User: What shape does this take?
Amino acid sequence: MSLRPALLACALALLCQPISAGEPARYRSAQEIIDAAPAEAWRTPDPANLLYLELESGRVVIELAPQFAPGHVANIRTLAREHFWDGLSIYRSQDNFVVQFGDPDGDDPAKARPLGTAKKKLPAEFHRASAGLRFDRLPDADGWAPQVGFVDGFPVGRDPKAGTTWLAHCYGTLGAGRSNEADSSIGAELYVVDGQSPRQLDDNITVVGRVIQGMERLSVIPRGPAPMGFYEKPELRTTIKAIKLASEVPEAERTPLQLLRTDSKAFAEATEARRNRRDDFYKRPAGHIDLCNVPLPVRAGVP
Amino acid sequence: MSLRPALLACALALLCQPISAGEPARYRSAQEIIDAAPAEAWRTPDPANLLYLELESGRVVIELAPQFAPGHVANIRTLAREHFWDGLSIYRSQDNFVVQFGDPDGDDPAKARPLGTAKKKLPAEFHRASAGLRFDRLPDADGWAPQVGFVDGFPVGRDPKAGTTWLAHCYGTLGAGRSNEADSSIGAELYVVDGQSPRQLDDNITVVGRVIQGMERLSVIPRGPAPMGFYEKPELRTTIKAIKLASEVPEAERTPLQLLRTDSKAFAEATEARRNRRDDFYKRPAGHIDLCNVPLPVRAGVP
Assistant: This one.
């Protein structure tokens, strides 16, 4: 049998590349570029913007985006500080779409958990003015938005005519569930995308952040009954031990990590290396990369 | 607490729509269109093209695409008939990418399972001539291929200049793992996409089919160690009870299902209803749909 898992690993994981030392103009894989990125290409997220979702299986680390959803992020900080989610659950898991969590009894006034000092009503924050944002544009065509790229490590869509920018729904995106009214989300009910990017939701819902580590703890949660994945039986829900702000956690208990700056040369070069793969595996470089196919590298490390 | 799970369900699952009886020109949701599709809009797949991947958690149903990969599909049929995969395993699960299965000892001549009468070498079948295929094109822009659409229920890319068509890597796509050589796959090692569509693999690898039911049995398989998801410990692998051709299974044990024809009016109308959602939830219809965001409806039912 000629297929060797080691080779298949390289082939399918797209992570290992032939290295021919001494060739000055040789192709460098995205991983090689990232590994060689200088210290200043990495950023340490602000602990006040990091949310730790603690599950039995471990910690999920989320970066919040107050520059896009200041009202929702402020409310989420309040809810976390007041332990709103502790003991609540992930009550929905729909295949190729989202997991959703918060208070499954939120619609029952007799059983709903009190919101404490958090606001009960917030304006929608679907998009914001592009002014004041550093935008690193992808040159690639996109069907969902006039322009796409990155702002502060987040994938975004952008409309130059309207002068607006919004967070895109990619794998790992954290959004605020709402009902039909645009202003019906307050950040207490949240969902994380774990399937093909549902970009039709872009600029239609308030996005509040992105999972940056531990996504695999959410994506393997058994799916609830079709079509929407809500668990009928409470015992099948996944309990949330706690959701905490990293800034409220003792330093020794924080998860030290850094993210590759999306305004760095290394990020642009790694993206180009993926857009046109020139290793021994690829027979036809795509010449394209989709916004939600661009990995946003994270590394363990103390600031 | 104003957020009601029932409303959130509608909002996020995008499946329930307001019904205003009596308005002749009212918007119909994709689900309403599909529910009203006539019998001839549905097709019953050929049992000789259906593969049953039997896991402890249940059955995964795959439709093979012999019109795109005749050599590989013939080999897969032989391997299934000769019980090649029975007792082997899913030995890789990489988050936001693929699960991969076959013989984890395939690289060890002393331990590899014999291939029986299956061919040990096959030509690559990355694409085929477009001639002779009914192509239902999506009008939407795509960055990965000059044209995209559907052939016989499969999402495809198409190059009118080269006159070629290939199966696209979407959620649920089944491909034949290979090493660096284009002709190094024979269909014994297979992978299923369970993350954001890795379309850079299109026309770079032989795609052999698509999961049409039971995808959630694969997508929840715990991820193996990063970065590539291969299990180091054999006991963590998921055992394959059997992979069988439906045509070799007694009729009473088959899974009766039908697929919405991608050349039907209902399919085109449902896709348009998703491209421009006009229900009470959406504030801004996308005006676009991505190839891999188009659901390919399946229903239970006896032919």
